[in-house]
């Protein structure tokens, strides 16, 4: 006959706990040194790279070599329009991460251009702009073939109320 198994002791709290305390406790078994780095990246991404870059980027995953806890590769999602600029700013972002962690935990950044996961404004307000009521007269020195092209082009830019 086997001995009855005891239920694990569950620590009770007198007061309500914050969500961050509950999440830390719930994810503690999953977190190793690598997980702590990635958790810090997710939590403090805007503080690490700055608010402007944080609006157009998001850490996707942190990939470590099989045996080491340093020398990681950070994969980030970025808006396609920001990806070329970020490619030039990779070294600066690596230094910002090293400054935040206190050592060079990340050796390389891989940028994935994607639209997924970024907030898109449903109905953006149109920017105020000046409407063109009529095209200015063209100088007489313009050749006829160029004049025809410019006149056709100006018809596309006149407001709908100006068109006959």
Please characterize this protein's 3D structure.
- With 164 residues, the chain is α+β, with helices and mostly antiparallel strands.
- It has a domain at 24-113: Alpha-Beta Plaits.
- The chain has helices at 19-27, 33-49, 51-56, 83-88, 90-101, 144-157; strands spanning 57-63, 72-78, 106-113.
- A three-stranded mixed beta sheet has the order 1-2-3.
- It is elongated and about 105 Å long.
Supply the key terms.
164 residues; alpha+beta; Alpha-Beta Plaits; three-stranded mixed sheet; 3 strands; elongated
Structure in a nutshell:
The protein has 164 residues and is α+β, with helices and mostly antiparallel strands. The protein has helices at 19-27, 33-49, 51-56, 83-88, 90-101, 144-157, and strands spanning 57-63, 72-78, 106-113. It is 39% helix and 13% strand.
Helix proportion of residues, in percent? 25-40%
Look up the CATH topology of the domain at 24-113: Alpha-Beta Plaits
Q: Report strand %.
A: 5-15%
Structural class by sheet pairing and helices: alpha+beta
Mean pLDDT over all positions: 76
Shape: elongated
- Show unreliable segments: none
What order do the helices and strands follow? HHHEEHHEH
Q: Strands across the major sheet, in which order?
A: 1-2-3
Which CATH architecture of the domain at 24-113 is right? 2-Layer Sandwich
Beta strands, count: 3
Summed up, the helix count is 6
Largest sheet: 3 strands, mixed
Query: What is the level 1 CATH name of the domain at 24-113?
Result: Alpha Beta
For the termini, the CA-CA separation is 98 Å
């Amino acid at each position: 006959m086997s001995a009855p198994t005891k239920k694990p002791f569950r620590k009770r709290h007198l007061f309500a706990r914050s969500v961050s305390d509950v999440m830390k406790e719930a994810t503690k078994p999953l977190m190793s040194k690598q997980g702590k780095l990635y958790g810090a990246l997710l939590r403090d991404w805007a503080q690490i790279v700055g608010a402007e870059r944080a609006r157009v980027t998001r850490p996707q995953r942190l990939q470590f070599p099989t045996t080491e806890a340093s020398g990681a590769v950070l994969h980030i999602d970025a808006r396609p329009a920001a990806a070329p600029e970020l490619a030039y700013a990779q070294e600066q972002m690596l230094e910002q991460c090293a400054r935040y962690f206190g050592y060079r935990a990340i050796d390389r950044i891989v940028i994935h251009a994607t639209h997924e996961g970024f907030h898109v404004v449903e109905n953006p307000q149109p920017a105020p702009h000046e409407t063109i009521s009529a095209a200015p007269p063209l100088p007489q020195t313009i050749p006829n073939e160029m004049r025809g092209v410019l006149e056709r082009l100006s018809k596309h830019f006149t407001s709908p109320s100006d068109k006959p």
